[in-house]
Specification:
Elements: E1 2-5, E2 19-20, E3 26-28, H1 36-44, E4 49-52, H2 65-75, H3 83-105
Length: 114
């Protein structure tokens, strides 16, 4: 499942969640295969994002694993010494390395799957 801007939606992609307007009215049901017409209608109804089945869109994550790890270290600098946060930090390190290794091997990542 992946939330993407409607501008990246293409015919053939499948909705993973029902699309509703601001008042809760259903505009398009879960499992609907998108067409050009449906995409254009949703745009005209001010829909900005869709939740699509699978991971159909490359969102352009250009950061390397090293860059992601460096950013992670910066985010955790204020909680050094907290045993719980150290465990969270280590789990995040392992996840970043695993995702990078999977992408390097050309296998789909399991991040964001339910």
């Amino acid at each position: 499942m992946q939330k993407v801007p409607i501008e990246l939606a293409r015919p053939g992609m499948v909705l993973a969640r029902t699309v509703c307007n601001d008042t809760g009215m259903v505009l398009c049901g879960e499992g609907t295969e998108l067409t050009d017409t449906i995409i254009e209608r949703l745009k005209h109804m001010n829909v900005t994002h869709l939740v699509l089945a699978g991971r159909p869109v490359d969102m352009g994550d250009a950061k390397t694993a090293e860059q992601k790890l460096a950013e992670l270290e910066e985010r955790f600098v204020n909680v050094r010494g907290n045993p719980i946060m150290e465990r969270v930090l280590e789990a995040a390190r392992v996840a970043i390395k695993a995702i990078d290794a999977e992408r390097a091997m050309g296998e789909p990542s399991q991040e964001g799957s339910s």
